[in-house]
Amino acid sequence: MKLTPQVKRILDNYETDNASTKINLARVLMHGKLAGTGKLIILPVDQGMEHGPARSFAANPAAYDPHYHYKMAIDAGLNAYAAPLGALECGAISYGDQIPTILKLNNANSLNDVKNQAITGSVKEAVRLGCAGIGYTIYPGSDYCYEQIDILQELTREAKESGLIVVVWSYPRGGPFLDKAGETAVDICAYAAHIAAQLGAHIIKVKPPTSHLCLPAAKKVYEEQKIDVSTLAKRAEHIMQSAFAGRRLVLFSGGEQTSEASLFETFQGLKDGGASGAIIGRNTFQRKREDALAMLDKIIDIFKG
Amino acid sequence: MKLTPQVKRILDNYETDNASTKINLARVLMHGKLAGTGKLIILPVDQGMEHGPARSFAANPAAYDPHYHYKMAIDAGLNAYAAPLGALECGAISYGDQIPTILKLNNANSLNDVKNQAITGSVKEAVRLGCAGIGYTIYPGSDYCYEQIDILQELTREAKESGLIVVVWSYPRGGPFLDKAGETAVDICAYAAHIAAQLGAHIIKVKPPTSHLCLPAAKKVYEEQKIDVSTLAKRAEHIMQSAFAGRRLVLFSGGEQTSEASLFETFQGLKDGGASGAIIGRNTFQRKREDALAMLDKIIDIFKG
Amino acid sequence: MKLTPQVKRILDNYETDNASTKINLARVLMHGKLAGTGKLIILPVDQGMEHGPARSFAANPAAYDPHYHYKMAIDAGLNAYAAPLGALECGAISYGDQIPTILKLNNANSLNDVKNQAITGSVKEAVRLGCAGIGYTIYPGSDYCYEQIDILQELTREAKESGLIVVVWSYPRGGPFLDKAGETAVDICAYAAHIAAQLGAHIIKVKPPTSHLCLPAAKKVYEEQKIDVSTLAKRAEHIMQSAFAGRRLVLFSGGEQTSEASLFETFQGLKDGGASGAIIGRNTFQRKREDALAMLDKIIDIFKG
Amino acid sequence: MKLTPQVKRILDNYETDNASTKINLARVLMHGKLAGTGKLIILPVDQGMEHGPARSFAANPAAYDPHYHYKMAIDAGLNAYAAPLGALECGAISYGDQIPTILKLNNANSLNDVKNQAITGSVKEAVRLGCAGIGYTIYPGSDYCYEQIDILQELTREAKESGLIVVVWSYPRGGPFLDKAGETAVDICAYAAHIAAQLGAHIIKVKPPTSHLCLPAAKKVYEEQKIDVSTLAKRAEHIMQSAFAGRRLVLFSGGEQTSEASLFETFQGLKDGGASGAIIGRNTFQRKREDALAMLDKIIDIFKG
Amino acid sequence: MKLTPQVKRILDNYETDNASTKINLARVLMHGKLAGTGKLIILPVDQGMEHGPARSFAANPAAYDPHYHYKMAIDAGLNAYAAPLGALECGAISYGDQIPTILKLNNANSLNDVKNQAITGSVKEAVRLGCAGIGYTIYPGSDYCYEQIDILQELTREAKESGLIVVVWSYPRGGPFLDKAGETAVDICAYAAHIAAQLGAHIIKVKPPTSHLCLPAAKKVYEEQKIDVSTLAKRAEHIMQSAFAGRRLVLFSGGEQTSEASLFETFQGLKDGGASGAIIGRNTFQRKREDALAMLDKIIDIFKG
Fold first, then answer.
1. Is D171 tagged catalytic?
2. Closest alpha carbon within chain B to D187
3. Which of B243, B252, B283, E145 has the smallest count of CB within 10 Å of its CB?
4. Residues of B in contact with A66 (CB under 8 A)
5. What is the pLDDT of residues D72-110, one digit of tens each?
6. How many CB atoms lie within 10 A of CB D64?
7. Strand partners for D43
8. Do B86 and D201 touch (CB under 8 A)?
9. Sorted alphabetically, which InterPro entries does this protein's record hold (chains A, B, C, D, E) (predicted)?
């Protein structure tokens, strides 16, 4: 498929990557219903690992099967599917030619409350499974943050040498300054996006920011400089700006929504602010397949629009 | 021996493994009295290391000799024999051609109460001893869990590169949420099986689940979704579902039984729920050889039936 | 460009470095408006990582874009530009031939208060991005100091083998003896410069020292030996002396200034004491481009003069 | 020298070792006055490191010289001499062809009371010094035990690849369950021997067991199963049984003795129970050379008898 | 230069070293005014790192320049010069052919009070700088002691493979048993020398011992065995004995002296007891060059005499 101007413009922002990594980024951007638009939606399924299988899949038991998610990502026309090692091993031959995949290299589980994640995969495994990239979560603020970054630094170097893209979930958490509200405060989400950009991420995942301002030193600047954080669109714009003035792709989750309507409203706001797209997991596989496909179609339309 | 349709179907679920690993999995599935049925029973003997030699073998002193266990696994027609380094070094030449073996790579001992295990072997040793696979225990919930998974991740990659299968003992233990009852709660066992599956295990070992529900957030879902955990068969079915909708082999121990009758009943229940088989150690070597062989024959019949 | 006598004299002080490292040091010293003078000014931009994007760039939003800083360093005629991985990846092709760059290999963030930094880059990345050198921060005094030095030792060896120069930010902090005033005490700054020199740094960055004396054992010696620390020039002279009697290049930041006038006065004092130059970040990009260029021109004139 | 049937039988128990390791084991078993008997006595001298030089050698100052111990082991007709790096470096050329040596790879010192040992040598050094094997101490029970085993696991693999034998000093110590009396309790010594066997040791060193039973869960079994621990011979028999039913060589120290008579009685008891031999250090070099030679001759006679 | 009988006798004590290491040891022993005597004096300058530059050099400002120390060691006719990385990098080309050098691989600083040292150099750097050997400090007794030894063990192996000699500063410090007086107690210094010898050091550095006895268990032996520690000569003799009966070279510092006279008396006492020589830093560079040269000449005469 011929690269569109939008995709070419994005690839230009990754000027130091080797051809192989750029091709993998292009594979993701030129796949599915958003192909060529410069926008993208990724389906992540590490929920079973993080919250347990029943809490993740009992509402829609077909989703216990890893093949279900491959098919969902393919049939919905999403750009990529991200999952831990075991799940990708189950379907990489059956579906690997139909959807780009991201191997998630670290994962938490909720049998403990340590603010860290275990290493569950490697760049070599991502290459073995034909993935387009690796995924990795950091918890800026957490006592494990520097250690997590040390490891990410090595994985990032190895991934880029291997021609893979790097997707970083940047989720501030823990430490002396962040409470629950702080985790989605706009200053914190912007900071999280910037950290991931500086660490060399190709694609950054953050949560949709609230208008809350968490760090006192930051709050002062936001107020002095009159940074407009009154609407979600404005906040998304600020996040994109914080990711190297829009030179990096930033995806948002849908947040905790009470209705489909509010979910669509959230993504519309993010889109209006220039968001690169969405990562949407739980909202997809915890409803019936037809409902999920319909919902994803609407979100695709929002980002196309 | 020609692969049966049941075994072919199982191998298909391991679609990303290389030929050598699939051959080793087939070796296990095509060995012994359950050969070709798709069911399997493994004899594990790391009890001496975990509880001390007298507590393990004094009831049947012949069992002090590692050769005894090789012969037991062979004569009973089991699928494989699993043990730590020293024990396999004692018999790998004498019996290695008569039974597939699993080298257990980590082990605890009861001279301390640290909720961790020491590394007692390596993939290279497993290759040197002609093993079909490696075994490894994780304690989800424990403070050492992420560290254990970090190490397992490396061993798993190396094992698969070396053509070996990976057997994971997934035993939730420790941490802020689990008490003794929680360790065998059905939500916890299902979660443990799912974690092992995501970590890339070929064969998963869990304990037979009780109907207890441990984590409040899980309990809520089990009740809302009306997940039937009233019988052992139903619980086994739920565990199998949690292991990638039955795409992974899951073995169960017999639990703490008061009589042979209740042991058989347990395995019958598990079998009815679709369990892939059993791992049965202590119950085997702590009775007389004839009694053990008779007992194993009955269990084999249950899984054949 | 032909090396000047001043630059030749400096290179002679690095007698054990290989040709490639000397060429990179010469590249820096022969670049920009101070080319050939033996003085140098580096623009460092890791502020976004350390304090967050809004606190760093909101006062001058053009600075959210990493290209802005490349252009600033080039247009102002500075000797080099230093930044973390992500920022250099954004512009290394566009501007890499127009300004020598330093890849900063570790960075802190202010979402936690751990007195350490995360590893955010590697010597291999610096080579990949065509950098002239690596940068690394140590916190002498901190509980992490020895660990930081252990890592620096390895990075330094690898950098020198790869023909790169090593720039060390030596910022005393933490531990049982240093309070806030101690961090810029003249005995501490001199000690910090000496430590960096002993660790093999080619260029050392310290803060401008106050006349405060922090360690009692040092204070006694300063008083007995009548070391003159009454003026900034005298203090700078003492710092240079502490860096192998001036055999190592030592750069100073501008400190926390209330006005441009006091900033210029600071640099004049440092220059008078023999300082090798300046590292000036925040003061550059937190004002309008024209103002920054004018300010940098004045500082260049100070060091030329 | 032609292998005797006794030695052949022992070598058969090490069926998975490569030729080079078996040759080294044979070298030890076919050396000295016990050559060919299947019994062996090793002289270990790491006492100076563990208790300090004066406490070790002042009673017999000739023993300050490492050559003294080489000569003692040779002249007494012992099977091997074990010592740390420095001591073997002093005499490996002078005496290396006259006695097999074991390089002790870890050592404690009594300037601290940490229940661990430092790594003081490596398999590569053992090869360089022409040793027949490596020695390593573990403290089952100690908080460092799993870490010690992790390291032993790697050293064991490397030693076996290099054709060396592995001698493990298994000294239970520390942790929540062991008091001083527990360290030599028969259940604990048997457990210690079993752990070392499972870790792949060729030769195991334990202390002579008392009739004390330490762990409540073990005590119950010893009493129920009526394991006879009334005499030292019976206890030695039980230890040998715990080391893979006698498939592994187990050596005993003489314990803390008040007289030569009681020392001989101890070894006679151990011999009667089937012990493979003795490791005897302090009792050797803390008396005059003639006395030591006479004493060792008696012990050799005991094990020959 | 032809080796003297004294030097040949010393080299014979290092029988297992390879030719390259023996040549480097001979280089040191055959250099300077003590060449061929079998005695040696080393100038160590890591004082700036350990106590700060002003405390080290302000009394004699010429000493801020690393070249000063090279010239001092050369002009005084010492056997070798030891310093950290940065200092040797400053002069290895200018003076490397005129004096053997020792690269000090670890160093403390006094901005913290952690009883450990940071790794500041490597064997590879020592080879790159043409050094004759490496230097390394251990703090027996300290909580970091075993970790320090683990690292020394690796460095020692690598150094010997690279043909370098190993100089160990063995400074007991910290832990539950040592107070300030204990650090120089004769039983502790003897123990420290023995530990370094067992770790494979070619040259050992200890402090001059007092007649204090620190460890109760040692005190008892010293008294029972009537070990004469009444004079410094007797104590030095005991230290040499503790270093493998004089098979290892042991150097002493001058201790904390109040006058030149007492310094000379100290070295005379040590010499009389058989000390191999001196390591003398602070006393050298903290006085005027002429005075230092005169003082060193006297010390050389003492060891020659």
1. yes
2. B54
3. B283
4. 244-245, 247
5. 999 999 999 999 999 999 999 999 999 999 999 999 999
6. 24
7. D81
8. yes
9. Aldolase_TIM (IPR013785), DeoC/FbaB/LacD_aldolase (IPR002915), DeoC/FbaB_aldolase (IPR050456), FbaB-like (IPR041720)
**Which of C89, C107, C129, C137 best probes binding to A when mutated, by most A CB atoms within 10 angstroms?**
C89
Q: How high is the pLDDT of residue A256? A: 77
Q: Is D270 helix (H, G, I), strand (E, B) or coil?
A: helix
ipTM of the complex: 0.97
Return the partners of chain E (3 or more C-beta pairs < 8 Å): C, D
CB contact under 8 A, D58 and E201: no
Q: What is the pTM of this model?
A: 0.96
pLDDT of residue A254: 84
Give the nearest partner residue to B125 out of D157, D197, D225, using CB atoms: D157
In the block, tokens 């040797």 appear at: E88
Provide the terminal-to-terminal Cα distance of chain E, rounded to the nearest Å. 22
Could you tell me how many residues make up chain B?
305
Q: Residue B268 is inside which H or E element, if any?
A: helix B260-272
Q: Please answer yes or no on whether D58 and E188 come within 8 Å at the CB atom.
A: no
CA–CA gap between residue E52 and residue E286 (Å, rounded): 13
> Is the CB of residue B36 less than 8 Å from the CB of residue B79?
no
Whether residue B171 lies in the annotated active site: yes
Element (H, E) at D21: helix D19-29
B187–A52 CB contact, under 8 Å: yes
Q: Which residues contact C226 (CB under 8 A, 6 or more apart)?
A: none
Q: How far apart are CA E36 and CA E54, in angstroms?
A: 37
Closest by Cα among E100, E81, E117, E83 to E25: E100
Do E and A share at least 3 CB pairs under 8 Å? no
Whether residue E119 contacts residue E152, with contact meaning beta carbons closer than 8 Å, is answered with no
Which residue in A49, A55, A110 is closest to B198 by CB distance? A49
3-state SS of E185-249? EHHHHHHHHHHHHHCCCCEEEECCCECCCCCHHHHHHHHHCCCCCCCHHHHHHHHHHHCCCCCCE
Maximum alpha-carbon separation in chain B: 56
What span, in angstroms and rounded, lies between the C-alpha atoms of E178 and E189? Answer: 12
Distance CA A240, CA A234 (A): 10
Q: Give the whole-angstrom CA distance, residue B299 versus residue B261.
A: 11
The rounded mean pLDDT for chain A is 96
Q: How far is A293 from chain B (nearest CA, A)?
A: 22
Give B-chain residues touching D219 at CB under 8 angstroms: none
Q: What tokens appear for B229 in the block? A: 């955990």
For residues C273-286, average pLDDT = 94
In order of start, what are the domains of chain D with their CATH numbers? 5-304 (3.20.20.70)
The Cα–Cα gap between C301 and C41 comes to 11
What is the Cα A187 distance to its own chain's centre? 19
Report the sign of the C-alpha dihedral through residues D28, D29, D34, D39, in that order: positive
Q: Spell out, as residue ranges, where chain B has pLDDT lower than 50.
A: none
**Measuring CA to CA, which residue among C287, C234, C279, C237 is closest to residue C260?**
C287
Asked if B91 and D15 come within 8 Å (Cβ–Cβ), the reply is: yes
Catalytic residue among E205, E207, E234, E271: E205
Decide if D64 and E244 are in contact by the 8 Å CB cutoff: yes
Q: How far apart are CA A52 and CA A65, in angstroms?
A: 14
Instruction: Report how far apart, in Å, the C-alpha atoms of B232 and of each of B212, B244, E163, E252 are.
Output: 12, 19, 68, 76
CA E124, E125, E127, E133 dihedral sign is negative
DSSP state of B39: -
Residue with token string 């003692």: D72
What residues of C act catalytically? 171, 205
CB contact under 8 A, A199 and C128: no
Catalytic residue among B71, B104, B160, B205: B205
Q: Which two tokens stand for residue B100?
A: 């597939």
